[in-house]
Write a structure and sequence with these properties.
Elements: E1 4-7, H1 12-22, H2 26-34, H3 40-47, H4 63-75, E2 79-84, H5 88-102, E3 108-111, H6 124-132, E4 135-141, H7 148-156, E5 160-164, E6 178-180, H8 196-211, H9 216-219, H10 222-231, H11 238-253, H12 257-265, H13 274-291, H14 295-302, H15 306-340, E7 350-353, H16 362-372, E8 377-383, E9 386-392, H17 399-404, E10 412-415, E11 419-424, H18 429-443, E12 452-455, E13 457-459, H19 466-473, E14 487-494, E15 499-501, E16 505-512, E17 515-521, H20 528-532, E18 537-548, E19 551-563
Helix pairs in contact: 1-2, 5-8, 5-10, 5-14, 8-10, 10-11, 10-13, 12-15, 13-15, 14-15, 15-16
Length: 566
Amino acid sequence: MEKRWKVLSAEQEKVNSLQKELKINEVICKILVQRGFDTFEKAKEFFRPQLTMLHNPWLMKDMEKAVKRILKAIKDEEKILIYGDYDVDGTTAVATMYQFINSFYHNIEFYIPHRYREGYGVSKEGIDYAKKNGFTLIISLDCGIKSIDLIAYAKTLNIDFIICDHHLPDTQLPAAVAILNPKQPGCGYPYKELCGCGVGFKLMTALAEELGLPDESYLCYLDLLATAIAADIVPMTGENRVMAYYGLQRVNNNPCHGIKALMQLAGVQKEMFITNLVFIIAPRVNAAGRMDDAKKAVQLFIEKDCDKALEFAELLHIDNTDRRTADSAITEEALALIEENELTDIRMTTVLYQEHWHKGVVGIVASRLIETYYRPTIVLTRSGEVAAGSARSVAGFNLYEAIHACKEHLLGYGGHFAAAGMTLLPEKVEAFTNMFEEVVRNTIQPESLTPVLVIDTEVSFNDLTHSFYRIIHQMEPYGPENMRPVFVVRNVMDSGNSKLIKDQHVKFCLRQNNNSFKGIGFNMAEKFPLVESKKPLDVVFTLEENEWNGQKMLQLKVQDVRLSQD
């Protein structure tokens, strides 16, 4: 698939000024300026994150109310229920809050709704469970901000709610005792991009301060918080980056038994980074909710016995294997359906419906299809009497608005700019498919159907030294708004040793003047004729360090290649 290359720019004056202060390669200064670190002080804070940079939790609206209500519950010996969503953010948030409060108060349990029986967020079943078992206070994490009717229902049963959420609130807010959400109107908390576990972390910080507990009483959960930050794809800026930085140190030096067990089963032997949390830990945790019951993810994270933790980890590992099998089989089937469809070449959307597909993986499959057919995609399956599914968008296109425009065919829908879910009657699938195609065709910009490859800056092979790499490496942890730097090098030649590996991947051997570099381009076999053409090439890549026989070598991880312009 051809990509549009977008090379970012930076104000040269600021770049020059920063280089004068930092005395490092101009290329790195350019990236820092692009990311807003355009002074010595800002750059120092970026490269040397400190826990003292975290904001005062009491700045969050309703924090005093939340702490006061929890202390009252403890004083009156009320039963407290910690309630959270079934994804990584929700299960880590529940595990941290449950363990933290349980360390000084034992009349407490946790509850994770079942994805298929109860659906997302606060459920009536969950509230009824609380009533039946005598709970009078529910602390909801990573959900609750939109549960107006359900929280009103809980109130009629004399159950109070403290909501810790990070999703964008509607105009009307639930009648909770306290709402902790930096995005709510009137909240002066300086950092707005916390995940659900992050909001819970701020509540624990305030409680620890009020109760005179040591900092370690909540800092010990930074490994779980870093996992939530990684998995929830929140911006890797401000507090998130500080917490992820120190959370990764915990993951690598002293993780909880649950994370340690997952790493062991995945065969991890090297240092863990954010990408490892995203691709190794998160899928196994999410698989519990996708394939079965996410309760065992919390049980894994709170387990104090390493052998038992390994047993729970094995259950998640099996769920993940099942998820991968289902994901792979459905993706293959879905691609075949698209290829067989004679309208594929003229359509601007993909909507597929098969009754037997597993509901837990349709969102993943939609993302996979976009890798091949870059257009707004919806994958539907049968769920009881209705068709239900997930939608994924392409960069820059508001998927939620497009689905909203087709609401006459839907029973229910929800989501945001890039992803959504919906339910509809099976007999409405065809009408919805046609209307969705029409809406997208009339609203999408043609260039949105070509993926964009964002490139930080141009470099020459001269720039790529070990000291250059060491500074780039210190920009970790990477994530949204602080992605791994992407470079373009122009007018390089194949040295004659580039080759195809397994008919899929390209091993690059490139030279520019007197400098040579090796690189790997995964699944780039279709680009190999460009390399063989012996013409000058422009190559887009990220920089990696490869260790072989105790020797460290820099190599390019190639993302795209094209012929150089004259």
